[in-house]
Amino acid sequence: SGSQVEELSCTSCQIGVAGVRAISEVMSSSKTLKRLDLSFNNVGPAGLRVLAKGIATQGQADGAAGVLKLDLSHNPIVGKPYNADPSGLQALLEALGAHPASKVVSFASTGLGHPNVVLPCIMKIATWVKEDTGGVEELDLAGNRIQVVEASKLAMWLGTGTKLKVLDLRGNDLDQTRATNLFGQVGEQVDVRADPDQSANAGGIDDADGNASAGSAPDDSNDGSMIEFGDMEATETIRAVQVEGDAAGF
User: Fold this and answer.
1) Exposure check for the chain: N or C terminus, fewer CB within 10 A?
2) Where is the composition biased (Low complexity) (predicted)?
């Protein structure tokens, strides 16, 4: 019988391709997995291609809910700066588009703003958001050093009529006023978050709303439907996934 796990947290586990492959095997046997946290790992283009297959396999299962929340923040998803490769991101977005379910997705601090790949990356992301029939509602692109020109392209490609409610652009090269002006055409329902205007932050005041920064530590609460790993070597992570999987009847 399939797993009843709803949340899988593998943050800070040094996960690469092998670890993602083990997680994808869990996904393929789970119709209930809704939240997947892979933040602060080493998931590159090859790992994203493996993850894309896992999402596609889960999406084809009858009655599968699909991954509603996906956190890939703080991973080198486009590879190393000297060898940037957006192919893994493209494969992932195609899988998410073919099996629409995700409502909250984080690509914060993943290197998307690298000059060699930033335009194709944000074009693919904008296309996915615009065409996603499931309707992604929250998109985190914080900490990617996206420049104003590239942000304006993102706004243009997003166009109007998306179901997006939150777009986090903090930690990029645009302040709140400029971001609000750029993305005003996308829709009034979109909460665009950017760094405070320079004049408003002259005294070094932190975010007045008290919002956690992108990639902050996940909620420690665990209702029993969540498998959590932390600070493991990659081999230990794979073993832990398999052990938990056996216990849950994967």
Assistant:
1) N
2) 199-225
C-alpha distances in Å from residue 188, one per residue of 121, 124, 170, 206: 25, 23, 19, 25
Cβ atoms < 10 Å from Cβ of 136 = 25
Domain boundaries, the chain: 7-201+208-248
The side-by-side arrangement of strands in the sheet containing 7-9 is: 191-193, 166-168, 138-140, 104-106, 69-71, 35-37, 7-9, 226-228
Contact in structure between 76 and 117 (CB atoms under 8 Å): no
Distance (Å, whole) CA 43 – CA 109: 12
pTM value is 0.80
Per mean pLDDT, which range of 14-23, 69-78, 185-194, 221-230 is the poorest?
221-230
Q: Which amino acid is at 58?
A: Q
In this structure, are residues 122 and 157 in contact, taking their beta carbons and an 8 Å threshold? yes
d(CA 54, CA 217): 25
d(CA 248, CA 250): 6
Q: Which CATH number applies to 7-201+208-248: 2.60.40.1270, 3.30.565.10, 3.80.10.10, 3.40.50.300?
A: 3.80.10.10
CA distance 200 to 28: 48
Highest average pLDDT, of 172-181, 201-210, 217-226, comes from 172-181
Q: What are the beta bridge partners of residue 166? A: 138, 191
Q: Which of 22-36, 51-65, 167-181 is predicted with the least confidence, judged by mean pLDDT?
A: 51-65
Six-digit token string for 239: 């073993």
